[in-house]
Amino acid sequence: xxxxxxxxxxxxxxxxxxxxxxxxxxxxxxxxxxxxxxxxxxxxxxxxxxxxxxxxxxxxxxxxxxxxxxxxxxxxxxxxxxxxxxxxxxxxxxxxxxxxxxxxxxxxxxxxxxxxxxxxxxxxxxxxxxxxxxxxxxxxxxxxxxxxxxxxxxxxxxxxxxxxxxxxxxxxxxxxxxxxxxxxxxxxxxxxxxxxxxxxxxxxxxxxxxxxxxxxxxxxxxxxxxxxxxxxxxxxxxxxxxxxxxxxxxxxxxxxxxxxxxxxxxxxxxxxxxxxxxxxxxxxxxxxxxxxxxxxxxxxxxxxxxxxxxxxxxxxxxxxxxxxxxxxxxxxxxxxxxxxxxxxxxxxxxxxxxxxxxxxxxxxxxxxxxxxxxxxxxxxxxxxxxxxxxxxxxxxxxxxxxxxxxxxxxxxxxxxxxxxxxxxxxxxxxxxxxxxxxxxxxxxxxxxxxxxxxxxxxxxxxxxxxxxxxxxxxxxxxxxxxxxxxxxxxxxxxxxxxxxxxxxxxxxxxxxxxxxxxxxxxxxxxxxxxxxxxxxxxxxxxxxxxxxxxxxxxxxxxxxxxxxxxxxxxxxxxxxxxxxxxxxxxxxxxxxxxxxxxxxxxxxxxxxxxxxxxxxxxxxxxxxxxxxxxxxxxxxxxxxxxxxxxxxxxxxxxxxxxxxxxxxxxxxxxxxxxxxxxxxxxxxxxxxxxxxxxxxxxxxxxxxxxxxxxxxxxxxxxxxxxxxxxxxxxxxxxxxxxxxxxxxxxxxxxxxxxxxxxxxxxxxxxxxxxxxxxxxxxxxxxxxxxxxxxxxxxxxxxxxxxxxxxxxxxxxxxxxxxxxxxxxxxxxxxxxxxx
Length: 835
Known about the structure:
alpha+beta; 3 domains
């Protein structure tokens, strides 16, 4: 009988083994005691032992509380079971207890690991090379490596897709979608392969005898790449594993997987972008000589046929074209001056810095000209003792626009890219120029070329009908080779018998202009215009008298070889501009030409065009004192001359009459070159011409659209290299031999549940491991008698492995599972041993 001083001794709780079950009737039998209240009213039996008890498992139960005496002897005749036992010793304190995940004994079990239930493995740890898992991982590794390598190459090469994307090819949206789809499959396969690689490395490290084992922080690496947010939520794991070799590889792979689709979209996905500059031979169709009035008349569209108006139908149409085009661009030129003046900005008196002719072409292309061969007006005026201004404006070759659409060039237009395309062309072609030379003169100086002032004219002094001046030439006007009258400005204007000075019917009234020439006789390179300065020699006192009295202007045009033409086209329009006097311009027409050529080749056709142009703009209305608005404004731009100092200068707030005339005539240069030769050739019938050009086209390319996107090359390179390492490890290092991934939660759960508990994780069963517990090293071993795999702390495993090595010669080695374990545990790989 036990005394009332008997002590209760608590045996630790046991976990349920796989063979445990709860029978319908418990056999729980407390030992009776006359001195213990429990003896008087025993509780119902609560036996949790399996029906097939073994000697090693008789003390195990699913849940229970055992009472033993101090000597460990059972007070019942039943087999030992987890029940309350009395310790009859009165001086022995209760034995310390621990709670573990497996049954425990009070015998000589190893501290912290006292396994009771043995779980023999029913399958091989090593997967066959022909298994679904092994083949799938290898296929994904090859796929991810090949495609990530292809994406990396495409990003570096930046291919141009041309007709493969767009009309007749793959739709741009479809191309972007396919790129994103493949990038996503690369990302997913990369994550899958790397997680498998990580599992193999860590599992082999845990199984290898010479390995350092793995920690809980190591096992969390797979979560980094699968759930990148865990780097923030479980930052303690990064603290313990992030600085290891495998940890740094895992961290790198995590960020690379996180940004891979972004990098692929930035560097691989086809997008509209400017490619590199290409030098090639362009083709353009040429139909006419430069400044051919006959060709322009024929091409002008008018509803009035030649049957209705045989003589003037074509010329009327052409003059309307001149009016529409020239007035529009001239108005823009004046608006630029007005805005500059109203803003308080004063333009330079140097020609190269003054507002140049500009405008639009075909209503959707902005045109920009430039001043060339600039001459100082003050020096010229001082040299000739009169107001002299000489300006030359260059304009782009308008034929380049049509050449860009020539089928031979196979240049896709902006509209072919859903309205988002564009291209840049710089062509080595001649450029049209217009020169305006104006000089101030008096009535006496003009008398040799004013028909009304000739003393011996045929009509005498009576009944001069100036309205018929443009339709018939008086018979007494000399025609080459007859000698002509000389003027004081012959040297300035290069007047000779072959290229005689103009003949005007009379001196125009103030604010009026008169054009020389008729429609039957055109002599020389230039058209001439005579202006009368505002209010000179009149009774109107509203304006002060102006010096010079009259201004004679010569206008001529030609082709220059010292420029190139640039054309930038978009779906909404374009920009056409001329580049001149640039020593670095490799596309300048005379840059690479071997033969000598003139800087400017003046055109004989221009004088005929100038007459049509001037009459269409009412510049000849002064012959009948028409007082046209255009002429009035033009005369007000006449610069003043100071006879005391013999100087004249340009106004900083308004253009000179010469600049205004050049701006008005600039549009005719575009019309003259639209179908004209790209070289100094006089083409009379349609033909294709080639010329040198550089092209930058907006096409579908791979590669970054912005310079900063180059940082994503790091992502593409690292993903490919990581894939390559994983593939090499899977295929070459382990020969495709996959082991059970013990870092997989389901595998680790089964392994840990059937392994002994450990004091290394004291307190972690509720809140999880913390601090140094995350860095505790764990290894996987096998109890070879039962072929049971388990996980244990590396420190606790040391003693057990020592005993296993001592007794290994006594253990059978015929078991395939044991042989497999021994082979795996002795295998060494460079990667799996990295700490």
